[in-house]
Amino acid sequence: MGTKQYKPTSPAIRNRKTLDYEEITSTEPEKSLLLVLNKKAGRNNSGRITVRSRGGGVKRLYRKVDFKRDKHDISGKIKTIEYDPNRTSNISLVQYADGEKRYIISPNKAKPGDKVLAGSKADVKIGNTLKLSDIPTGSIIHNVELTIGKGGQVARSAGTKAVLMAKSKKYATVKMPSGEVRLINVDCKATIGEVGNAEKRNTQRGRAGSTRWAGRRPKVRGSVMNPCDHPHGGGEGRAPIGLAGPRSPWGKPTLGYKTRNKKKKSTKFIVKRRK
DSSP E strands: which ranges in the chain? Predict the structure, then answer.
Protein backbone atom coordinates (compact mmCIF):
# COMPACT_ATOMS: atom_id res chain seq x y z
CA MET A 1 0.00 0.00 0.00
CA GLY A 2 1.42 3.39 -1.01
CA THR A 3 0.61 7.01 -0.24
CA LYS A 4 -1.38 9.52 -2.26
CA GLN A 5 -0.55 13.23 -2.59
CA TYR A 6 -3.01 15.95 -3.52
CA LYS A 7 -2.79 18.95 -5.83
CA PRO A 8 -2.06 22.07 -3.74
CA THR A 9 -5.40 23.71 -4.51
CA SER A 10 -5.47 25.19 -0.98
CA PRO A 11 -3.02 25.59 1.92
CA ALA A 12 -5.06 22.96 3.80
CA ILE A 13 -4.24 20.10 1.44
CA ARG A 14 -0.84 21.27 0.17
CA ASN A 15 0.95 18.91 2.62
CA ARG A 16 -1.80 16.31 2.87
CA LYS A 17 -0.75 12.69 2.31
CA THR A 18 -3.10 9.75 2.68
CA LEU A 19 -2.98 6.03 1.95
CA ASP A 20 -4.14 4.84 -1.47
CA TYR A 21 -5.91 1.80 0.09
CA GLU A 22 -4.97 -0.50 -2.81
CA GLU A 23 -4.82 -3.51 -0.47
CA ILE A 24 -8.41 -3.06 0.72
CA THR A 25 -10.69 -5.60 -0.99
CA SER A 26 -13.99 -4.88 0.80
CA THR A 27 -15.66 -1.77 2.19
CA GLU A 28 -18.53 -3.62 3.88
CA PRO A 29 -17.61 -5.08 7.29
CA GLU A 30 -18.92 -8.44 8.56
CA LYS A 31 -22.11 -7.52 10.47
CA SER A 32 -21.83 -10.42 12.95
CA LEU A 33 -18.46 -9.05 14.17
CA LEU A 34 -19.56 -5.45 14.80
CA LEU A 35 -20.28 -3.74 18.12
CA VAL A 36 -21.59 -0.28 18.96
CA LEU A 37 -18.78 2.02 20.09
CA ASN A 38 -20.01 4.75 22.42
CA LYS A 39 -18.12 8.04 22.55
CA LYS A 40 -16.31 8.84 25.82
CA ALA A 41 -14.83 12.29 25.01
CA GLY A 42 -11.99 11.65 27.48
CA ARG A 43 -14.34 11.23 30.47
CA ASN A 44 -14.35 8.52 33.12
CA ASN A 45 -17.35 6.77 34.72
CA SER A 46 -18.16 9.82 36.88
CA GLY A 47 -18.15 12.18 33.90
CA ARG A 48 -14.91 13.97 34.74
CA ILE A 49 -12.39 14.69 31.96
CA THR A 50 -9.37 12.46 32.59
CA VAL A 51 -7.82 12.81 29.10
CA ARG A 52 -7.78 16.33 27.68
CA SER A 53 -8.33 17.33 24.03
CA ARG A 54 -10.72 14.51 23.15
CA GLY A 55 -14.23 14.69 21.71
CA GLY A 56 -16.27 14.77 18.51
CA GLY A 57 -15.06 12.75 15.56
CA VAL A 58 -16.71 10.49 13.02
CA LYS A 59 -19.09 7.82 14.29
CA ARG A 60 -17.48 4.35 14.32
CA LEU A 61 -18.41 0.73 14.84
CA TYR A 62 -16.03 -1.56 16.71
CA ARG A 63 -14.74 -4.65 14.89
CA LYS A 64 -14.19 -7.67 17.15
CA VAL A 65 -10.59 -8.73 16.43
CA ASP A 66 -9.32 -12.15 17.49
CA PHE A 67 -6.08 -11.41 19.38
CA LYS A 68 -6.13 -14.78 21.18
CA ARG A 69 -6.07 -16.92 18.00
CA ASP A 70 -7.44 -19.81 20.06
CA LYS A 71 -9.07 -21.71 17.18
CA HIS A 72 -6.45 -24.44 17.23
CA ASP A 73 -5.63 -26.76 14.31
CA ILE A 74 -8.59 -25.57 12.21
CA SER A 75 -7.55 -24.12 8.86
CA GLY A 76 -8.85 -20.70 7.87
CA LYS A 77 -8.91 -18.80 4.59
CA ILE A 78 -8.53 -15.02 4.27
CA LYS A 79 -11.70 -13.76 2.54
CA THR A 80 -11.14 -9.97 2.57
CA ILE A 81 -8.73 -7.31 3.79
CA GLU A 82 -10.54 -4.38 5.36
CA TYR A 83 -9.92 -0.94 6.83
CA ASP A 84 -10.44 -0.62 10.58
CA PRO A 85 -11.11 2.92 11.90
CA ASN A 86 -10.12 1.86 15.44
CA ARG A 87 -6.46 0.98 14.68
CA THR A 88 -3.61 1.87 12.32
CA SER A 89 -3.28 -1.66 10.91
CA ASN A 90 -5.70 -3.28 8.49
CA ILE A 91 -7.71 -6.36 9.46
CA SER A 92 -8.33 -9.62 7.58
CA LEU A 93 -11.61 -11.49 7.63
CA VAL A 94 -10.85 -15.21 8.05
CA GLN A 95 -13.42 -17.94 7.36
CA TYR A 96 -12.56 -21.23 9.08
CA ALA A 97 -13.27 -24.75 7.84
CA ASP A 98 -16.19 -25.08 10.30
CA GLY A 99 -17.82 -21.93 8.88
CA GLU A 100 -16.97 -19.47 11.68
CA LYS A 101 -15.68 -16.03 10.69
CA ARG A 102 -13.19 -13.95 12.67
CA TYR A 103 -11.14 -10.82 12.16
CA ILE A 104 -7.35 -10.95 12.67
CA ILE A 105 -4.63 -8.29 12.40
CA SER A 106 -3.60 -8.29 8.75
CA PRO A 107 0.06 -9.39 8.36
CA ASN A 108 2.33 -7.84 5.75
CA LYS A 109 1.91 -9.34 2.24
CA ALA A 110 -1.31 -11.13 3.23
CA LYS A 111 -3.88 -11.39 0.45
CA PRO A 112 -7.32 -12.96 -0.07
CA GLY A 113 -7.11 -16.72 -0.58
CA ASP A 114 -4.15 -17.22 1.79
CA LYS A 115 -4.52 -20.02 4.36
CA VAL A 116 -3.84 -19.37 8.06
CA LEU A 117 -3.61 -21.79 10.97
CA ALA A 118 -3.08 -21.57 14.72
CA GLY A 119 -1.72 -24.34 16.94
CA SER A 120 1.16 -26.79 17.22
CA LYS A 121 0.49 -28.26 13.75
CA ALA A 122 0.95 -24.89 12.02
CA ASP A 123 3.93 -24.25 9.73
CA VAL A 124 6.25 -21.29 10.31
CA LYS A 125 4.45 -19.21 7.71
CA ILE A 126 3.22 -15.60 7.62
CA GLY A 127 -0.12 -15.29 9.43
CA ASN A 128 0.17 -18.56 11.37
CA THR A 129 0.13 -18.48 15.18
CA LEU A 130 2.30 -20.77 17.34
CA LYS A 131 3.76 -20.90 20.82
CA LEU A 132 7.13 -19.18 21.17
CA SER A 133 8.65 -22.60 21.93
CA ASP A 134 7.68 -23.77 18.40
CA ILE A 135 8.99 -20.68 16.56
CA PRO A 136 12.62 -20.71 15.30
CA THR A 137 15.08 -18.25 16.84
CA GLY A 138 15.55 -15.10 14.76
CA SER A 139 11.96 -15.08 13.46
CA ILE A 140 10.02 -11.85 13.01
CA ILE A 141 6.73 -11.97 14.95
CA HIS A 142 3.77 -9.78 15.91
CA ASN A 143 0.65 -9.93 18.13
CA VAL A 144 2.78 -11.34 20.97
CA GLU A 145 1.21 -12.51 24.25
CA LEU A 146 2.73 -11.40 27.57
CA THR A 147 0.44 -13.60 29.70
CA ILE A 148 -0.54 -17.14 28.68
CA GLY A 149 -4.03 -17.15 27.16
CA LYS A 150 -4.63 -13.40 27.50
CA GLY A 151 -4.18 -12.64 23.80
CA GLY A 152 -1.61 -10.60 21.88
CA GLN A 153 -0.64 -7.28 23.44
CA VAL A 154 2.68 -6.41 21.75
CA ALA A 155 3.38 -5.37 18.11
CA ARG A 156 -0.19 -4.84 16.87
CA SER A 157 0.00 -1.41 15.17
CA ALA A 158 0.82 -0.78 11.52
CA GLY A 159 4.32 -1.79 10.40
CA THR A 160 5.49 -3.03 13.81
CA LYS A 161 7.35 -6.25 14.57
CA ALA A 162 9.16 -8.05 17.38
CA VAL A 163 12.14 -10.41 17.04
CA LEU A 164 12.54 -13.75 18.82
CA MET A 165 16.21 -13.58 19.87
CA ALA A 166 16.75 -16.66 22.07
CA LYS A 167 14.94 -19.44 23.95
CA SER A 168 15.51 -21.43 27.12
CA LYS A 169 13.40 -24.12 28.84
CA LYS A 170 10.98 -21.62 30.40
CA TYR A 171 11.54 -18.20 28.84
CA ALA A 172 12.08 -16.70 25.38
CA THR A 173 14.05 -13.48 24.85
CA VAL A 174 12.09 -11.11 22.62
CA LYS A 175 13.17 -7.73 21.26
CA MET A 176 10.17 -5.39 21.35
CA PRO A 177 9.33 -2.74 18.71
CA SER A 178 10.58 -0.08 21.18
CA GLY A 179 14.02 -1.74 21.42
CA GLU A 180 13.36 -3.17 24.88
CA VAL A 181 14.56 -6.76 25.34
CA ARG A 182 12.23 -8.83 27.50
CA LEU A 183 11.72 -12.38 28.78
CA ILE A 184 8.37 -13.97 27.88
CA ASN A 185 7.09 -17.44 28.83
CA VAL A 186 7.67 -19.90 25.95
CA ASP A 187 4.02 -21.05 26.21
CA CYS A 188 2.82 -17.59 25.12
CA LYS A 189 1.70 -17.34 21.51
CA ALA A 190 2.80 -15.06 18.67
CA THR A 191 1.98 -14.68 14.98
CA ILE A 192 4.63 -15.04 12.27
CA GLY A 193 5.57 -11.97 10.21
CA GLU A 194 5.22 -8.23 10.74
CA VAL A 195 2.04 -6.16 10.74
CA GLY A 196 1.06 -4.74 7.36
CA ASN A 197 0.17 -1.17 6.35
CA ALA A 198 3.68 0.11 7.16
CA GLU A 199 3.15 3.15 4.88
CA LYS A 200 0.82 4.57 7.55
CA ARG A 201 3.83 6.30 9.13
CA ASN A 202 4.33 8.38 5.95
CA THR A 203 0.86 9.95 6.01
CA GLN A 204 0.19 13.58 6.95
CA ARG A 205 -3.18 14.99 7.92
CA GLY A 206 -2.32 18.41 6.55
CA ARG A 207 -5.39 20.16 7.94
CA ALA A 208 -7.04 20.73 11.31
CA GLY A 209 -10.38 19.27 10.18
CA SER A 210 -8.81 15.87 9.55
CA THR A 211 -7.63 15.80 13.17
CA ARG A 212 -11.14 16.68 14.35
CA TRP A 213 -12.57 13.74 12.36
CA ALA A 214 -10.26 11.48 14.39
CA GLY A 215 -11.81 12.76 17.65
CA ARG A 216 -8.96 15.09 18.66
CA ARG A 217 -9.80 18.60 19.87
CA PRO A 218 -7.30 21.49 19.74
CA LYS A 219 -4.44 21.63 22.25
CA VAL A 220 -3.27 24.92 23.74
CA ARG A 221 0.46 25.17 24.51
CA GLY A 222 1.29 25.85 28.15
CA SER A 223 3.79 28.58 27.20
CA VAL A 224 0.99 30.81 25.84
CA MET A 225 -1.10 30.53 29.03
CA ASN A 226 -1.05 32.72 32.11
CA PRO A 227 1.01 31.70 35.17
CA CYS A 228 -2.19 30.77 37.04
CA ASP A 229 -3.11 28.26 34.31
CA HIS A 230 0.20 26.49 33.60
CA PRO A 231 3.74 26.29 35.07
CA HIS A 232 5.15 27.34 31.66
CA GLY A 233 2.87 30.39 31.41
CA GLY A 234 3.55 34.10 31.92
CA GLY A 235 6.64 36.22 31.31
CA GLU A 236 7.33 38.97 28.81
CA GLY A 237 7.24 37.85 25.17
CA ARG A 238 8.40 34.33 24.44
CA ALA A 239 9.71 33.05 27.74
CA PRO A 240 11.73 29.82 28.25
CA ILE A 241 10.39 26.95 30.37
CA GLY A 242 12.67 27.89 33.29
CA LEU A 243 14.96 26.17 35.79
CA ALA A 244 12.27 23.84 37.13
CA GLY A 245 12.17 22.05 33.77
CA PRO A 246 9.16 20.84 31.75
CA ARG A 247 6.01 20.38 33.81
CA SER A 248 2.46 19.20 33.23
CA PRO A 249 -0.38 21.66 34.02
CA TRP A 250 -0.47 20.16 37.54
CA GLY A 251 3.25 20.60 38.22
CA LYS A 252 4.38 17.00 37.59
CA PRO A 253 7.70 16.58 35.68
CA THR A 254 7.23 15.55 32.03
CA LEU A 255 9.10 15.09 28.71
CA GLY A 256 11.41 12.22 29.58
CA TYR A 257 10.62 11.90 33.29
CA LYS A 258 10.43 8.19 34.16
CA THR A 259 7.07 7.22 35.66
CA ARG A 260 7.49 3.41 35.83
CA ASN A 261 6.88 2.00 39.31
CA LYS A 262 10.16 0.58 40.68
CA LYS A 263 8.23 -2.12 42.55
CA LYS A 264 6.40 -3.37 39.44
CA LYS A 265 6.60 -7.17 39.36
CA SER A 266 7.31 -7.43 35.63
CA THR A 267 10.55 -5.41 35.96
CA LYS A 268 12.46 -8.66 36.59
CA PHE A 269 11.55 -9.82 33.04
CA ILE A 270 13.17 -6.80 31.37
CA VAL A 271 16.67 -7.72 30.20
CA LYS A 272 17.41 -4.35 28.58
CA ARG A 273 15.36 -1.14 28.84
CA ARG A 274 14.37 0.79 25.76
CA LYS A 275 16.44 3.87 24.96
Answer: 3-5, 17-19, 34-36, 61-63, 76-82, 91-96, 101-105, 115-116, 129-131, 140-142, 144-145, 152-154, 162-167, 171-175, 181-185, 189-192, 270-272
